[in-house]
Amino acid sequence: MAASIPQLLHVPSLDSTIGAVLVGTVVGVMLYGLTVHQTYRYFKLYPADRLLLKVLVATILVFETVHTVLWIIVVYHYTISEAFNLPGVLLGHWAVRTTFMITSFAVLVCQIFYVCRVYLIGFQYRWLAVPAVISMLSGFSFGMAGGVEAFLYAHYITDFQHFSWMVSIAYGFAVLTDVILTSALVFVLHRSRTGFKRTDSMIDVLIIYTINTGLLTSVVSILAFVFALILPGNLIYAAITIVGSKLYANSVLAVLNSRRSIDDRFLDAFESFDLPSIPNSRDITCEVYRRGAHSPMVWNAPQMASCVSQTTTISQGMSFATHVDGDVGSRV
Predict the structure, then answer these.
(1) How far apart, in whole angstroms, are the C-alpha atoms of residue 328 and residue 154?
(2) Are 93 and 72 in contact (CB under 8 A)?
(3) CA gyration radius for the chain?
(4) pTM given for the model
């Protein structure tokens, strides 16, 4: 059987380069549509959120838009503009080089949100955010270094294999950051268990929710880490990073948009308690809480603690449960 042109030229096949990028871009565009929908839903449901959080959501949308446009340009260039021009197909396009940096920024912005969520849990737990910040910045540095190397030395598509290890390390740190942040939240949630069956069951739900939030992004980051390490000569890892970036954005937006449903669930469970039977409960403050609890800006830890005596352990668990997913919106 005659050898194919890629085999004769000792370059990766189109299936593992342009084909992989095409598939990744198609999936990425679909996920980008979900990002746009979730962004619209966020601004519609939470117009009272602080400006900083709105800027964060807008920044995520901007980076994901640029990221999507760049990969569409890459696909168009290699499949249409240079479809029958072999030397042109082998050249490294500027849009491919740019995606290294844009992806690094997109992932960084999403991880900053999760770091802030851990930081705002409480003063005594802020040290848990330190290793996450170190890991996050390390991964960002390797991603940016890969982008600089791409602009300086990636004249041909085969040159990307010389610094794909930087992409691998960057996603390795992304996985480490996800694990640290998830572990920190689970650790604090577990310590917030009160011994009350209803409260502990709600905390268990939050623990599962916290783990599931970072599970999919971690799995995709691990795949990008592995493929960039063992198959540096193709662009399969690049296709995975397209999907990974979109999953990070959608996970943050999903957390923000789920606050109202989570608030309603915990409010219903909380109001089922017989507050007068709890010693030192503050009836007037609790009445104020009930009237304003449906607002995500109102339902936060200080108000929760005021409804129940500080000597009652149930307030600790309930206040943290709300604080994790709702208080970021009111304090960031």
Answers:
(1) 41
(2) no
(3) 24
(4) 0.75
